[in-house]
Amino acid sequence: MRGDSHGCLGATCGGRPVCKRENMAIIKEMSFKISSDIENLASFGLSDSSTEKTEITPSGFFKIDGDQYIISYTEESENGRIFTDITVETDRVMLKRRGAVISDMEFCEGAEHASEYSVPPYVFDTVIKTKKIRNKLTRSGGRLDLYYEMNIGGQDKKVRMKIECTPTDKD
Fold first, then answer.
1. Considering all CA atoms of the chain, what is the largest pairwise distance in Å, rounded to the nearest integer?
2. 143 in any annotated domain
3. Where is 145: in which H helix or E strand?
4. Distance, CA of 153 to CA of 124 (rounded, Å)
5. Which residue from 152, 146, 51, 58 is spatially nearest to 99, judged by alpha carbons?
6. What are the strands, taking DSSP E only, across 21-121?
7. What CATH number does the domain containing 124 carry?
8. Global pTM?
9. For the chain, what percent of residues have pLDDT higher than 70?
10. What are the tens digits of pLDDT across the range 75-85?
11. Residue 66's domain spans which residues?
């Protein structure tokens, strides 16, 4: 694979390089509260009255690189470990998962992003339509809310993902 030492291929978005890991500073170890409300939709976007609620509280790292916040954590699932990086920029959020789940999702208000969601050996086509990004992150933590519609493997869903970042007290 060609690219820099991090495997990036020199891609840009809006004239900015996508990978900026060279100057990244780790700010704090954090604990996170990550919750999702996923409403399953029937035909024509009508709710089928089932909502999946999940909540995890992993520890990880909160990093700042210029105008980017990077949230990194590991979680355990029934299929193994999942390593997650969430990169928050001024106008978009990228969520990258590796391990027991493999996915690259991009959230940009009003935009649609197609990708794949893989739980080996299964692979599902996904389309994300971002409705709203509410970014209340600061250097000391904070909160990120993502509101989006998702079609995964032909199933329509409405999702609200909340991520709360709290400094871990280390004495």
1. 54
2. yes
3. strand 141-152
4. 5
5. 58
6. 25-41, 47-56, 59-65, 68-77, 80-88, 93-99, 102-107, 112-119
7. 2.40.128.20
8. 0.77
9. 77
10. 998 889 999 99
11. 22-167
